[in-house]
Amino acid sequence: MNTLLSVQEQLQSGKRKITDICEEYLQEIGKSNTEVNAFVHVNEDDVRKQASEVQQKIKAGTAGKLAGMVVGVKDVICEKGKKVTCASHILHNFESVYDATVIKKLKKEDAILIGRTNMDEFAMGSSTENSIYGPSKNPVNTDYVVGGSSGGSAAAVAANMCDTALGSDTGGSIRQPASYCGVVGLKPTYSRVSRYGLVAYASSFDCIGPFAKNVTDAALLLEQLAGDDPMDNSSSDKPVENYSKAIEDSSGKLKIGVPKEYFGEGLDDEIREGIESRLKDLEKDGAELVPVTLPHMKYGIATYYILATAEASSNLARYDGIRYGHRADFEKVEEELAKERKELKKAAENASAFETANIDSPLIRLYKKSRTEGFGTEVKRRIILGTYVLSAGYYDAYYGKAQKVRRLIKQDFLDAFNKVDVIVSPTAPTTAFKLGENQDDPLQMYLNDVYTISANLAGICGISVPAGTHSNGLPYGIQFMGNTFREVDILRAAKQLESL
Q1: pLDDT given for residue 102 in this prediction
Q2: 403 neighbors 453 (Cβ within 8 angstroms)
Q3: Spatial contact of 69 and 51, defined as CB atoms under 8 Å apart
Q4: What's the pTM?
């Protein structure tokens, strides 16, 4: 297996050069990206400059721990001097003035940042079809979606355009596209990786994590990304474990919880049979399979979409066309208002009717026009849903109850982890669906996250690993979830499965 460690051995011996590796990736991007649409921006001169500097460090023996790793970055993570558009018209001209903490860490360890990857607008979607750059396409079969919202990152790794990539996971946005594209995708425990510099969708759910071609590289990358950050007061100061070393330890039998709730109605029969077969392989290899139950998971989808949309409506209020991002043409707004006033005055029976008429101020109209022009359909849908559940009269009925159910879901996991090390499930109920197939059915689109949202609701860690290939030729994944800050457990389970 061609891991970062094996690449670093070749670089140190002089058999390969990082400059050559980057050229190979740039050639692959030039050849495949037009069709796959994984990257939305690649600065070849900048990549070559990075590679040259890292090559000099390798030669001098001063290179960092990630020297030799070429990384794609989801276009929702701030990188100084680069556009950070979140695949939205409202940020189409925004350029970051600072590096996210994860970007600083990658640069410090001499990883090469090759480009910005496509995504669903503001990370809202399950297919990477909601993007101003157009949809990303599955490298396995370009008639199908890549999953979302970090689909560009998954596609970039699967199409061999980079070694690894960063994504963000709010309800499964790393793990689900990893499953659809046949790569490894890891969502760390909430607060394990700093969110500073990640454009917020739902602040109590969002996590930054890696995509990789193998479990070892995912572990190596997480080691460098994780840790306390004074710029993020939600980040944990819990010490970071040596994940890459820990996963090589095969001593101790893993107890794997198998919840009946994840293997019932709605799951593709072939995926169920394939995962059950892989579980038998793990059992033969020494793992113990333990039945567990997660009784409140039936409320997971409803709970997630109430809470996440509520947080989204609050977070996206800052995009008003005044401070940064897209702004509607103010002169046209004034002309429009003047015309409305003239028409209303002409139609009014008396002056008092005109004075009490409900006409926006120029500023309010500018807000409305800027947001209407800037946001896409799915983002507008979630803002409306979130504003509704937070509104007076509905807050207690929806948002308040959803918070209580979230706590019950977390307790279900805590109870299960008293018996097992990890919990297993399919990553998604089906393989990737065809482009456009679910665009007019938001509910069906939301159901694609049914197995992944629970980890975000509970704040625990999860990883998707390739489990097999469906008869339709598309890959599917198996998901391992671990207790808070037990990334070692899910990485060990994933590594064990990968080695079988």
Answers
A1: 98
A2: no
A3: no
A4: 0.96
Token pair recorded at residue 408: 């019950």
d(CA 159, CA 152) in angstroms, rounded, equals: 10
Q: Give the mean pLDDT of the chain.
A: 95
Any catalytic annotation for residue 339?
A: no
From the candidates 74, 105, 369, 495, which is the catalytic residue? 74
Q: Which of 96, 112, 436, 469 is nearest to 268 (CA)?
A: 469
In this structure, the strands spanning 164-169 and 70-74 are parallel
- 368: Cα separation from own chain's centroid: 29
pLDDT tens-place string over residues 75-133: 999 999 999 999 999 999 999 999 999 999 999 999 999 999 999 999 999 999 999 99
Q: Is the pLDDT of residue 349 over 80?
A: no
| Token couple for 11 | 């670089």
The sheet carrying 475-482 orders its strands as: 39-41, 112-117, 70-74, 164-169, 207-212, 184-187, 461-469, 475-482, 422-426, 255-259, 288-292
Helix (H, G, I), strand (E, B) or coil at 482: strand
Report which residue type is found at 457. L
Structure tokens at 329: 């043409």
- Annotated catalytic residue 74: yes
- In 3-157, DSSP assigns E strands to 39-41, 70-74, 112-117
Q: Strands (DSSP E) along 194-245, which ranges?
A: 207-212
Structure tokens at 191: 């607060």
Please identify which of the residues 149, 236, 370, 454 carries the catalytic annotation. 149
Name 258's bridge partners: 291
Q: Which of 88, 126, 173, 454 is catalytic?
A: 173
Q: Has 369 been annotated as catalytic?
A: no
Neighbour tally for 447: CB within 10 Å? 17
What is the spatial distance between Cα 491 and Cα 184, in angstroms, rounded to a whole number? 10
Q: Do residues 89 and 374 lie in contact, with contact meaning Cβ atoms separated by under 8 Å?
A: yes
User: Could you tell me the CA-to-CA distances from 139 to 149, 163, 268, 449 in Å, in that order?
Assistant: 16, 15, 22, 21
Amino acid at 18: I
| 156 phi/psi in degrees, rounded to 5 | -60, -40
